[in-house]
Amino acid sequence: MLKKNPKVSRSLAPFTRPIMIRNILVLTIPSCVVAILFLELTATFFVPAAQFPSYYYDPADHILRFSTTDLRDGIFTMGTMAQQRARWHINNMGWNSAIDFEEIKRKPRIAIIGDSYVEALQVNVETSLAGRLRELVSPQMEVYAFGISGAALSQYLQMARYARKHFDPDILVINVVHNDFDESLCSIKRQSGMLCLADEGQEVREAAIEPYQPNQVFRTARWSSVVRYAVTNLKIISRVQGLFSGRRNKPTYNANIDVEQVNARKAHIQKATEYVLGALQRENGEKPVIFMMDAPRRDIYAGTLEDSDVFWLNRLLKTTCETVGFHFIDLTHEFSREFAANRVHFESEFDWHWNETGHFAAAHELHRALVALRLI
After folding, report:
1. Looking at domain 49-372, which of 3.40.190.10, 3.40.50.1110, 3.40.630.30, 3.30.930.10 is its CATH number?
2. pTM (2 d.p.)
3. Is the CB of residue 195 less than 8 Å from the CB of residue 157?
4. Cross-strand pairs, 290
């Protein structure tokens, strides 16, 4: 058997390295490029990744809304195969709405303020709470919706100021969910572009709003369909966080809140709630203000509503509304009645936000209340 000459092998080594590098450049890199292009095309056209609008901070009004110069129409998808899809449209004033907003008022106007439930990217824009209510009151009244993800009860105060300044609504409706209360406190959540409240013991004050500055790295990464698919459809970040957090000492969640932590903050929550509603009363004069609150849906489905560990927040908001003279709509009764009759859920299997059934039921309950109060 012939033996290799080690001296010859060593002498050839400098010549083989460039060949190996050339093979990597010629074969591996193009293969990676082709694979990335394939994944991008798949996540763009075949299993479309979620699209979402870009935020914009208006320094004049100190308000966070959506950009009117970036993407204004898109499809928000949910599920690994994009099973749930919804169309959104950013209007002329930077809000997700099927219609443009005019500052000149031609007919009575209802303004609906809220967080992602009013933003409503999870349903087609015309089937949102505002879209459904618009169908019910048109053509006698206009319905404008101001919703932004992550907003809390404190931010609704700032959004009400913006709506009053530019659109002079005749009726103000504020939609509230259970995580809106403690997240109003700066000590719990301080989000750039949004108002939070500092509880200083003897008094509650409004902290200065930190202007929102977009992260250019994240904004650039959003152009990749693969990145959006991994983050939004696969929820890869929350999955990884779940793996690292382990199974010990996991908090008990209900209505999207850490029940133990929120219950421990009752006194602070009550002070913040009283401050927001008191400020709204002083600033809106005699115009009617209506608070509408989501139901503890998990308790409704489980038949444990009487023992609900979050329903005290509904009662707190109702009592505070009565104190300052605001109207209050609790969706618990309507959602309970609808579930008992038809066994329908008000959110999809992919997300806890309202689905079209939830938006439809909320809009009709709001319309019934407006009629009963003789406001329309």
Report:
1. 3.40.50.1110
2. 0.91
3. yes
4. 173, 327
Give which of 284, 345, 292, 359 is closest to 134, Cα–Cα: 359
What is the per-residue pLDDT across 146-184, written as a single tens digit (0 to 9) for each?
Answer: 999 999 999 999 999 999 999 999 999 999 999 999 999
Nearest to 332 by CA among 349, 351, 308: 308
Q: What are the boundaries of each domain within the chain?
A: 18-47, 49-372
- How many residues does the structure list for the chain? 376
Contacts of 223 (CB under 8 A, 6+ apart): none
Strands 204-206 and 253-254 come out as unpaired
Q: pLDDT of 25-72, one tens digit each?
A: 566 777 787 778 888 898 898 999 999 999 999 999 999 999 999 999
